[in-house]
Structure formats: C-alpha cells, structure tokens
Amino acid sequence: MPVxxxxxxxxxxxxxxxxxxxxxxxxxxxxxxYMFDQGLRFARFNTGYSMAMAxxxxxxxxxxxxxxxxxxxxxxxxxxxxxxxxxxxQLIMAGRLG
Length: 98
What we know:
Helix content: over 70%
Order of helices and strands: H
Distance between the termini: 134 Å
Number of helices: 1
C-alpha cells in the first residue's frame, strides 16, 4: 500500500506544480496586458480631460463673442439715436438745420 500512496503523492505534487506553473504564466500574461492597458487608459483620460477643457474654452469664447456683438449693436443704436435726437431738437427749436 505504501507504493500506491507514494505514487499518488507524486502525481498530486506533479499536478500541483503544473497548475502552479500555469497560474504563474497566466498571471504574467494578464499582468502584461493590464500594465499595457493602464498606459492606454491614462492617455485616454488625459485626452478626454484636455478635450473637455478645450470645449469649455470654446463656450467662454462664444459667450464673449455674443456679448461683444450685443455691445456693438447697442453702440450703433446709441449713435444713430443721438443723431436723430440732435436733428429733431434742431428742427423743433430753431426751425432750420445749420
């Protein structure tokens, strides 16, 4: 009976060693892929963050442009309104221009 027990123990030890080697190879393979993916994931994160900052900058630029457009229109209306006011004032008060 001791010969069979020794053979079974040897077979179990060989199976354990084979499983251990397979697990180590699988861990090394997956670790290499994981480490490679971490670099790509970080690059993708930085790219997305940079794009979000650029988009926010574009929104701010758009708001600035719209504000500038509104102010320019208001300045034009004020100039035209002032000219009309002065002309009307001259016509009402003096009855003539010049």
